[in-house]
Amino acid sequence: MEAHSSEVFVIGLTVFFLACIIGYYVVWSVTPALHSPLMGVTNAISSVIIVGAILAAGPQGFDTSKIFGLIGVVLASVNIFGGFLVTYRMLSMFKKKTKKTKEKE
Amino acid sequence: MVAILYLISALLFIFALRGLSHPESSRMGNIFGIIGMIIAVFTTLMFKSVLSYYEIGAAILIGGAIGSFIALRIEMTALPQLVAAFHSLVGLAAVFVAAAAFYDPVAFSIGKVGSIKTASLVEMSIGTFIGAITFSGSVLAFGKLQGTISGKPIVFKFQHLINALIFFLIIFLIVLFVINQSPTIFWTIVIVSILLGFLVVIPIGGADMPVVVSMLNSYSGWAACGIGFTLSNNLLIITGALVGASGAILSYIMSKGMNRSIINVVLGGFGGEQDTSASKDNSDKIVKQGNAEDAAYIMKNADSVIIVPGYGMAVAQAQHALREMGDILKKEGIEVRYAIHPVAGRMPGHMNVLLAEANVPYEEVLELDEINHDFPMTEVSFVIGANDVTNPAAKTDESSPIFGMPILDVEKSQSVLFVKRSMATGYSGVDNELFYRDNTTMLFGDAKKMCEDIVKSLSA
């Protein structure tokens, strides 16, 4: 599991640059009308740092690191739920309005 | 196994962004994102070292309840500040994760307390630095958007010099931290970075806020990346890079929409001082004023109307009344479309969401490039809550601060209706010569009230 740390870093760097390139092309293909939902989604997925927070909160017993981890989990969860839900709300407004809905508001 | 599951989760995140290329595929994209997140969380919970399920479960429930409550209750006009608030949480979470890794390096297999690997220390402190900046910058941006703090850019002497000095101080602290691994220095980095975050956002305000919001979006991604490197976690690195790239591209698009470089926006101060470029005195020019009935009459007799919404529409919450007006006009057989300038509103795509909320079909909402050449063939331009983005000075007046900014050519349509609260200049502080043209009618009043009155006149 434990490789040379320089090797691990280079792998990370490789992944990083490839991901940047993918991000570049994927984001340019996003239609400008959906730029707000884009921010909502990116906000939600960037909270994937919850992974790190869970690892810190994982061990039994209570120490400083665990408390930090749990705070991290709470903060990231606010974002995950909030981000996906608000995006969902935005996107459901962009549904095709074929049938005339008479409801106001 | 873990690596595979994380990879699937990362791929799902990419598909989530890809789905946003079209409104029809976007909802599926959001679901991909949610599935990706669920996989990521459960994979991590399966780790042997993760044992405290109850505490973690409780933390997720608390956070999830708060997040859901806010997301379901928020008004769509308040989206920009919501997004800013969410960014601040990502930044803060990054700081906490970095701190946790520092206090318990064994849990992340990056060494032991007091002898953490150098590379990990560097990555950790960079993640902390970006996270803390994102946090404080977003808090300030939230305050500005919410109106708690003045939205005006605040500039003072030696601002950039001070920021540069603080930046070098942080680099120095990081070097020191890598050498002696002292908790005191770690927290000093956090505090100084928080201070820098405030200072970076303070000189930017008003209509530059879309750039700030996008920039902070980008930072939150890079912060996640920094943590990803610390933990040697590819999922975090990939996701962070996606988000970072996304925010950077949005910032670029926004700055281009104002014909300014990102650096120019970041350095800030734009629109702060009153521009003394009021060389042309417009006080003696005559403004043609009209009321709702006039506007209704003009539009009723047109074949085509293009509506240009701006931040003022959001402030007045006029989108529903506006859509109602559009509906009546459409029923009369008039072609109604909406033209959106890239920097309209306070965040990218702000106007599109508000119009979608009011049930305006997205096919009728067009971007600047798509609709600009149609203005000469259009009879009426209905500008509501926008100003600078229609100002012809951007094309003609080289001394104008907005010179070179792409504008919507409403001047080329046969007549222009301007809904405004007063004759005040736009955010840039530049007077709009369009107000004084013969074919322009000013409709003074609250945007929502005006639309409702026009609806009344139209249906009378």
What does this structure look like?
The complex is a heterodimer of chains A (105) and B (460). With 105 residues, chain A is an all-alpha fold. Chain A has four helices and no strands. The model of chain A is unreliable at 99-105 (pLDDT under 50). Chain B has helices spanning 2-18, 23-45, 53-73, 79-103, 118-146, 159-180, 183-201, 209-230, 234-257, 262-267, 292-300, 311-316, 319-331, 350-357, 368-371, 393-396, 447-459; strands spanning 111-112, 115-116, 289-290, 304-309, 335-340, 365-367, 380-384, 415-420, 440-444. In chain B, strands 3-9-8-7-4-5-6 form a seven-stranded parallel β-sheet. The longest helix of chain B has 29 residues, at 118-146. Chain B starts with a helix and ends with a helix. At the A-B interface, helix 1, helix 2, helix 3 and helix 4 of A face helix 1, helix 2, helix 3, helix 4 and helix 8 of B.
Helix and strand arrangement:
The complex is a heterodimer of chains A (105) and B (460).
Chain A: H1 5-28, H2 35-46, H3 50-57, H4 64-93
Chain B: H1 2-18, H2 23-45, H3 53-73, H4 79-103, E1 111-112, E2 115-116, H5 118-146, H6 159-180, H7 183-201, H8 209-230, H9 234-257, H10 262-267, E3 289-290, H11 292-300, E4 304-309, H12 311-316, H13 319-331, E5 335-340, H14 350-357, E6 365-367, H15 368-371, E7 380-384, H16 393-396, E8 415-420, E9 440-444, H17 447-459
Parallel strand pairs in B: 3-9, 4-5, 4-7, 5-6, 7-8, 8-9
Antiparallel strand pairs in B: 1-2
Helix pairs in contact in B: 1-2, 1-9, 4-5, 4-8, 5-6, 5-7, 5-8, 6-7, 8-9, 11-17, 13-17
Any descriptors?
heterodimer, A: 105 residues, mainly alpha, disordered C terminus, B: 460 residues, alpha/beta, seven-stranded parallel sheet, 8% strand
Outline of this structure?
The complex is a heterodimer of chains A (105) and B (460). Chain A is 70% helix and 0% strand.
Q: Give the largest interface pair and sizes.
A: A-B, 87 and 117 residues
Largest sheet of chain B: 7 strands, parallel
The strands making up the biggest β-sheet of chain B line up spatially as 3-9-8-7-4-5-6
Helix content of chain B: 55-70%
Beta-strand residue fraction of chain A: under 5%
Order of helices and strands of chain B: HHHHEEHHHHHHEHEHHEHEHEHEEH
Residue stretches of chain A low in confidence (pLDDT < 50, at least 5 long) are: 99-105
